[in-house]
Design goal:
Blueprint: H1 15-22, H2 31-47, H3 50-56, E1 58-63, E2 70-75, E3 81-91, E4 95-105, H4 118-124, H5 129-133, H6 140-145, E5 147-156, E6 162-169, E7 172-176, E8 180-184, E9 187-192, E10 196-201, H7 203-222, E11 228-241, E12 247-264, E13 282-286, H8 313-317, E14 325-330, H9 337-350, E15 355-359, H10 368-372, E16 377-381, H11 387-390, H12 395-406, E17 410-414, H13 425-429, E18 436-445, H14 446-449, H15 456-464, E19 468-472, H16 479-492, E20 497-500, E21 540-547, H17 553-562, E22 568-575, E23 584-589, E24 592-597, E25 606-613, H18 617-625
Parallel strand pairs: 7-11, 14-17, 14-18, 15-16, 15-17, 18-19, 19-20
Antiparallel strand pairs: 1-2, 2-3, 3-4, 4-5, 5-6, 6-12, 7-10, 8-9, 11-12, 11-13, 21-25, 22-23, 22-25, 23-24
Length: about 650
């Protein structure tokens, strides 16, 4: 959403136009995808603008690596971590509904721990507690112990009204009727007196805080104030339990069940009290032109749609440079660029910074952006083709869109492994009005460096163009080999900093800074800008192979290990195996390969992208399509899969 080109208030955008900025596809074709994507976009887009996220109340956001959408977040006024987990969706003739479970994990030294159950309090004192919190989506017991409510996101089919609902109890309360005793150092200690509270957690107070921040984020992204609000309360219950295992839920006048409904673009027909009111319920409703509900006057969603982008002249007068730092990330096929980028993004997210990635891959289907997980960052993919061959004139518009919409702290231009940075240095010089050009970082695959003679000119130019050389995979080299490779890199580029790494892991603080450089960087200055060698000169091409059925893993491994010639430089993709329940990621380079689980759902057919020199696409397709057969591999078939 371009905050510098807001909709003319005299001609407000329609709900369809606004929702299209959150989810550009068909809103009702895939309910799961629609609702998850809308909520994800609201949360992430708000967090991309530092001043906005701070004013609304966000203090940190992280997407959890899991097969289900899950986030951990910190907000103002609370020490602990909130967890939000996608539970599923329901579709009816009039609306879509998505359900999210809400948790709160108190800090180990937070006073709120005393209000948790004994079992929950014991979890907070474990050494690995905070590590487990980051994996809460996988741990049923942890979620049950720290549950505080449910969130619903609804979308009306006819009016396109977007609703955000909360359900929570004033207290999550349980009494130990027989008390709780434990033996400590041989002495019986009373932990809970008979009839005392084992748990008395202010669930609604916690859930409301998160709900207000989320509602304010929705108003900001939708650029409109709410059109309807309702807060309904009804009698609640507590749990009583006994040492013999008996358990009883009963009404209690100390607690209530709360349901809050916040709507945007809601038609006038939605006004008035909720239709499902029951005897004894208390409801407060609001619609435009009415006074704000007294208990909710301070909710940030009433005004957050008017928050500006904080990009004012004051920063310029103060000498503050708020342009994002641009890092050009290059390196030959399979060197470890995406792994390094994953580590870089995780480091910045932990420090409340956001990264935008412009990604370019050779081949018809990009994989690396899917592996990064775009909830922690913004990934923009340039059209198929090598950046040095097809990017001319298109990089600046892409960066302008990113800077206008998201205000990232860093922008990483991740090039295809076959890109020669020398060929777009001149264009980088023209970007100084949008970004601070930080560096060219080249990732070097240590084990393949001395052996790789294919595209040697491209690799040499990637090394020569670098301000930072990351010598990766040194765990696969001897000390003597590391010394040898380092010496050769130094001869090729006497000016670059050389940093060793294993699996792309290096502290980014050692490489980059958020502070602008006093002296312009060497990018585009000490390098020639005339045309340089590219992958077409080496007759390197790519092909895509798709699979209509799951593959036999043994046959596939045999093909990868024994049938691919050295001129096949890279194989990567997402495939299904007959012995696995979910999609798998395949990564192959220089005779080494890895097969791992894909961390999300994959509804499209399996595919592989093969990149190599003088490849014969029909023979490669035949090789891998045979892997769908259950019969044993034909080890006597030795025909080549690249042209002579």
């Amino acid at each position: 959403m371009d905050r510098t080109h807001r909709t003319d208030p005299t001609k407000p955008a329609t709900p369809a136009q606004t929702l299209h900025t959150l989810y550009p596809g068909d809103l009702f074709e895939r309910p799961d995808d629609t609702l998850r994507a809308i909520l994800r976009t609201i949360v992430v887009r708000t967090n991309f603008i530092p001043a906005v996220r701070h004013r609304i109340g966000w203090r940190g956001l992280n997407h959890c690596t899991t097969t289900r959408d899950a986030w951990t977040a910190k907000i103002a006024d609370w020490q602990g971590v909130f967890g939000m987990l996608w539970e599923g969706s329901a579709s009816s003739s009039d609306r879509l509904t998505g359900l999210f479970q809400l948790n709160y994990f108190p800090a180990p030294d937070e006073e709120l721990v005393e209000d948790c159950s004994l079992r929950a309090a014991a979890w907070t004192q474990r050494e690995d507690y905070l590590t487990l919190v980051r994996r809460f989506a996988e741990l049923d017991e942890l979620r049950d112990l720290f549950y505080i409510g449910d969130l619903q996101l609804t979308l009306d089919r006819s009016s396109l009204a977007l609703g955000l609902n909360l359900r929570s109890d004033t207290w999550l309360a349980s009494r130990a009727e027989d008390g709780v005793r434990a033996e400590v150092n041989g002495e019986a200690i009373t932990l809970v007196a008979p009839g005392g509270w084992d748990q008395h957690l202010p669930a609604f107070k916690l859930a409301r805080s998160f709900y207000e921040v989320l509602g304010a984020s929705a108003a900001f992204c939708l650029e409109t104030s709410p059109s309807y609000f309702c807060h309904r309360r009804r009698a609640g219950q507590i749990v009583r339990y006994w040492s013999d295992g008996r358990q009883l839920q009963q009404p209690d006048d100390t607690t209530e069940k709360h349901e809050c409904r916040l709507a945007f673009f809601s038609p006038e027909s939605a006004s008035g009290s909720p239709a499902d009111l029951q005897p004894g319920d208390v409801a407060v409703t609001w619609q435009p032109d009415q006074p704000l509900p007294t208990e909710w006057q301070s909710a940030p969603w009433w005004q957050s749609h008017m928050i500006g982008d904080f990009k004012s002249l004051d920063k310029q007068l103060l000498g503050i440079d708020d342009r994002p730092a641009l890092i050009v990330l290059t390196g030959f096929l399979g060197s470890g660029k995406t792994t390094f980028l994953e580590n870089f993004v995780a480091y910045q997210v932990q420090r409340d910074r956001f990264v935008a990635v412009v990604q370019n891959e050779i081949g018809e289907t990009g994989l690396d952006g899917k592996l990064l997980g775009s909830d922690n960052l913004m990934v923009t993919e340039i059209d198929e083709g090598c950046v040095c061959c097809t990017l001319s004139g298109r990089l600046k518009p892409a960066l302008h869109q990113l800077c206008s919409n998201f205000r990232p702290d860093f922008i990483v231009l991740e090039t295809t492994g076959l890109a020669n940075p020398m060929n777009f240095m001149e264009e980088l010089i023209t970007l100084s009005d949008l970004v601070r050009i930080d560096s060219v970082t080249t990732v070097v695959d240590g084990p393949s460096y001395l052996e790789n003679r294919v595209a040697a000119d491209i690799i040499a130019d990637q090394i020569k163009s670098a301000d930072i050389l990351l010598l990766n995979k040194i765990d696969l080299l001897s000390s003597a080999q590391v010394t040898d490779v380092t010496a050769q890199l130094r001869r090729q580029n006497p000016h670059a900093a050389i940093t060793p790494a294993i699996r792309g892991e290096v502290n980014p603080a050692l490489l980059y800074s958020l502070d602008p450089r006093e002296v312009p960087p060497t990018v585009g200055i000490h390098h020639e800008t005339s045309a340089h060698h590219n992958h077409l000169d080496d007759q390197i091409r790519s092909c895509k192979i798709t699979f209509a059925a799951p593959l036999n893993r043994d046959r596939f491994v045999h093909a990868i290990e024994n049938r691919l010639p050295k001129s096949i430089l890279r194989v990567k993709g997402i495939v299904f195996f007959s012995d696995a329940t979910g999609p798998m990621v395949v990564q192959y380079v220089a005779g080494r390969y890895e097969i791992s689980s894909f961390p999300d759902r994959w509804d499209d057919p399996g595919f592989l992208i093969c990149i190599g020199q003088q490849i014969l696409e029909e023979r490669l397709d035949r090789l891998f399509q045979k892997c769908a057969s259950p019969s044993s591999p034909d080890e006597n078939d030795t025909r080549p899969y690249t042209s002579p």
